[in-house]
Amino acid sequence: MSGVAPYSSVVPARATAPSAGADKLWKQAQDFETVFFENMLEHLTSGLGDDGPLGEGGIGGDVYRGMLSQQYAKSVTAAGGVGIAQNVYRELVRLQEGR
After folding, report:
1. Per-residue confidence in pLDDT tens, the chain, 99 aa
2. Measured between alpha carbons, how far is 95 from 99 in angstroms, rounded to an integer?
3. Which InterPro entries match (predicted)?
């Protein structure tokens, strides 16, 4: 995803190394993006029904599908995400600065 800014470009420029507070805010923003993306994937795959290797009518398919959605979401976020974490991070910083 070439249009996504890396972590170093969204950390406040005044710090040469990210502070512990900035790291915590960034982690929270990434966690939010992961949960958001995971929920989006779960809703996207919920309509697939019992077809394919994740179906078969048993509860195992639902459990596996949930774990698969969670891992996809973690992988996407770790690879730079879809841009939600950067926006959440900026808003968290803005709220902490009282603007």
Report:
1. 455 555 555 544 433 345 788 889 999 999 999 999 999 988 887 777 666 666 666 667 777 888 888 999 999 999 988 889 999 999 999 998 886
2. 6
3. Flagellar_prot_FlgJ_N (IPR019301)
For residues 31 and 84, give the distance between their C-alpha atoms in angstroms, rounded to a whole number: 10
Query: Which residue carries 């966690």 as its tokens?
Result: 31
Task: Quote the pTM value.
Answer: 0.69
User: Measuring CA to CA, how many Å separate 7 from each of 41, 58, 66, 77, 96?
Assistant: 24, 41, 28, 12, 19
Which tokens in the block code for residue 18? 């990210």
Query: Residue 38 carries which side chain, given as an amino acid letter?
Result: E
Determine the Cα–Cα distance for residues 38 and 30; give it in Å rounded to an integer.
12
